[in-house]
Amino acid sequence: MALYSFWIFDRHCNCIFDREWTLKTNPSSGTTNSKLNEDTAKLLYGMVFSLRSISQKLGSKGSFNEIRTIATGKYRAHILCTASGLWFILLSDLGQEDLSQVLRYLYSEIYVKTVVYNWLSPVDFADSPNERRGQGFRKIRNRQFLLAVEKFLGPMVN
Amino acid sequence: MDASQRPEMTEHQKQQLQFQLFQDSLPKVNEIVYRMLLNEAIPMAVNVQDRLSEESGGHEDNETEQGLEQDLDAKLTFDPLKDHVPSHKLLQKYLTADEEYQNKVDERLNNIGFLLGQKLSQLLIFSNNPSLNFRDMDLLAVMKFVCRDVWRQLFGKQIDNLKTNHRGTFYLLDNNYKPVESFALDEDMSQEEQTLIEPYLEIPCGVIRGVLDSLGFQEKGQVICTASITSDRESQKTGSSASSRAVLFNVQINPDR
Amino acid sequence: MSASMSGNTASSSSSKKSLKAFSDDIWKNKTAKINAELFTLTYGSIVSQLCTDYERDFAKVNKQLYSMGYNIGVRLIEDFLARTALPRCDSLAKTSEVISKCAFKIFLNVTPQIGNWSSNKDSFSIFLDENPLSEFVELPMDAARELWYSNILCGVLKGALEMVQMDCDVYFASDVLKGDQTTELRVKLNKILKDEIPAGED
Q1: Contact B153/C35, CB-based, under 8 Å?
Q2: Which SUPFAM superfamilies does the annotation name (chain C) (predicted)?
Q3: Residue C53: closest C-alpha in chain B
Q4: Is B251 left (phi over 0), alpha (psi -120 to 50) or beta?
Q5: Domain ranges across chain A
Q6: ipTM computed for the complex
Q7: Domains in chain C, CATH or no CATH each
Q8: Distance of alpha carbon C107 from its chain centroid, rounded?
Q9: Does the CB of C30 have a partner CB in chain A at under 8 Å?
Q10: I want to staple B176 with a disulfide (CB 3.0 to 4.6 A). Which of A53, B26, B244, B248 is the partner?
């Protein structure tokens, strides 16, 4: 099994965390803030956004038809969208059928415990209205979050 | 199981068991709402400080622009979130504030703890805890009460280590101070982190003062309690997670004058 | 998962039972608990300090408690969603049910009654027969007139609902601490907020 990358988008369409294990240039940093990653984030967001809207329109009115995975020829994207508008996305090889439990763990055991319970950290990463709608740049950088993500996902990378 | 089949259980143990059953039967709430309430008390205390200093600053305008102020008041009742500031930003204000400002915030929190401590010891005394016998309690026994019963109520654990010089000075070590266990800033900001955690030690300091006050140590300045984060090696060895922080509470009790 | 299933069948009568059973299970088996009285005393000490700080200007105390609640609400909602995995509600009726049977149950272990719906169904009341914030509390005369003792709850609900895109007014209509017959919390939905879309996409 192989995990390629992990992404979190917030309710303002901003990428507030990205961790790419396939990039060899900056292996130890959890916050590779390269131009490349920014572009990838926008593309990934766009793909999930479009397919998610379509799948919701295809569902009958009043019931939820939330998108969970998207497979391409090269990878599979696993998606968890919370009612509060957070998206947790894992990219893996095609062999991974279901990572929904892993995503739930990332949300409830890692994000909630190291960001939400962490009073020193914001829970809204857009500092002003002009950092909303995908124009934000702030990321989750707190020590405990980075550590927990690495400890949990690290062993699944290869 | 019949009680007679357990002769090894002493009267005291039976009482303890009964007390535990009684504790379990009391109404409960989710621990997280209590923790969040305690955690938000610190930014709240900062916010109060801001609002009070704004008021005293704008005092002269009050009379000349009363009409405007009433207007403003009317708006306040419509929008209770006017001038709202998120928790982490209030804490950032504390971080950059001067010492006088910080002291005022600390004092406010210490007072909250004091009020809580006074009520809490009454609660613990009236709950018939068999390990409590206040009639012939010496100072050490009182401090043991703080370490065991008070701490267990507040944080679900006991103080890990109690030391004393037998002349009124006590050191209470909590190897994993719960309220701040999730707190962390970016990797290179450990100094700021430390400063921001300090006001989070004020409420328990106040609680200790309040408990001692309700047990008869009521003279002004009789009890002095301070706390600091320690880089205690022991706590890291004994398997607590890397994120746990040890806090040392220093309690000084002067004899009655 | 059972959580998302109960959210999917919003209007069927069986889901009402399952939402209760679902919340009971979370409360009983997956929740760390503390003595309610400790919680009451802690809140009481905070309110009491605020009354001193604002020199018994209770309008200011109310406001402070509300904004304190808001900051808690925007965090508590994530804890709630992580515990329950519930999706967004498709009606305000469903929201009211989740608030009383699920949120109040899981966090405060009480299940307040919902009622007093407005004719156009955009507002309702939460009747707190039991209120863990104010158990055994009595207010002095001056405070009883102006202080909304449990106002923090309004802020919590305001913040939590806003995070699931519901812009609501939340306020107390009455409180037994003021000598009223009931403790009534009013929730009025102003609008459902639109999810943001990236700039330049509209």
Answers
A1: yes
A2: Ligand-binding domain in the NO signalling and Golgi transport
A3: B48
A4: beta
A5: 3-156
A6: 0.90
A7: 2-192 (3.30.1380.20)
A8: 10
A9: no
A10: B244
